[in-house]
């Protein structure tokens, strides 16, 4: 959809929002910008909150803005893989009231990103987007924290893991070095597939 589909008044608001979020991004834990100048398609960036398994991660959010924005919410989903009860581990879809029935034209793209960041600090497992993750969060919190931290280090960290680091991460989760290496080699050093295989074998 081109920006031409949006009425001039709403287009002016989007331009103002983009200007504001750019001005604030330097000192903020959230930021966003349009993709190739398309005001209906943005990419958001947020830092994982401290004291959570997402700390140290940088997450990318895909933002699609409908023609009737701000009267209807933007469509947001995680481009970066994340392990969280309210975010699909497969598609990145987000279950959050302010992106649905609680949306108000008074809200902005920036406030929506801040709400998503707050969700990382305070998951809502009783209203899940990903039932498997929610079950782990409710019944095996330590394993949830380990898995969420592992996914953050694997997918949201600026420093991609070496093979030795990949083995070490699995060892820290309670597997032997032999088990970790064998599973990683079997799955082409894909850490997620290796971890899932090891967890299924427990």
UniProtKB/TrEMBL annotation:
SUPFAM superfamilies: UBA-like, UBC-like. The keyword NAD does not apply. The keyword ATP-binding applies. The active site is at residue 95. Keywords: ATP-binding, Nucleotide-binding, Transferase, Ubl conjugation pathway. Residues 161-201 form the UBA domain. Residues 9-157 form the UBC core domain. It comes from the Eukaryota. One of its GO terms (molecular function) is ATP binding. InterPro entries: UBA, UBA-like_sf, UBC, UBQ-conjugating_AS, UBQ-conjugating_enzyme/RWD. Its EC number is 2.3.2.23. It holds the Pfam family UBA. Coiled coil: none annotated. Belongs to the ubiquitin-conjugating enzyme family. This is E2 ubiquitin-conjugating enzyme.
């Amino acid at each position: 959809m081109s920006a031409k589909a949006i009425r001039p008044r709403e287009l002016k608001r989007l331009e103002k929002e983009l200007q504001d979020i750019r001005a604030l991004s330097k000192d903020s834990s959230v930021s966003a910008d349009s993709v190739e100048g398309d005001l209906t398609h943005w990419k958001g960036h947020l830092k994982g909150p401290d004291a959570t398994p997402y700390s140290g991660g940088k997450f990318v959010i895909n933002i699609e803005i409908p023609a009737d924005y701000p009267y209807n919410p933007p469509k947001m989903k995680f481009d970066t893989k994340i392990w969280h009860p309210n975010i699909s581990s497969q598609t990145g879809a987000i279950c959050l009231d302010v992106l649905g029935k609680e949306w108000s034209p008074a809200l902005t793209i920036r406030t929506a990103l801040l709400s998503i960041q707050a969700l990382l600090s305070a998951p809502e497992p009783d209203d899940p987007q990903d039932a498997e993750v929610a079950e782990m969060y409710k019944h095996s919190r330590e394993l949830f924290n380990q898995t969420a931290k592992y996914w953050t280090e694997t997918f949201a960290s600026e420093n991609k893991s070496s093979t030795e680091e990949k083995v070490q991460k699995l060892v820290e989760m309670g597997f032997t070095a032999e088990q970790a290496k064998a599973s990683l080699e079997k799955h082409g050093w894909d850490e997620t597939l290796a971890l899932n295989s090891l967890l299924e074998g427990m």
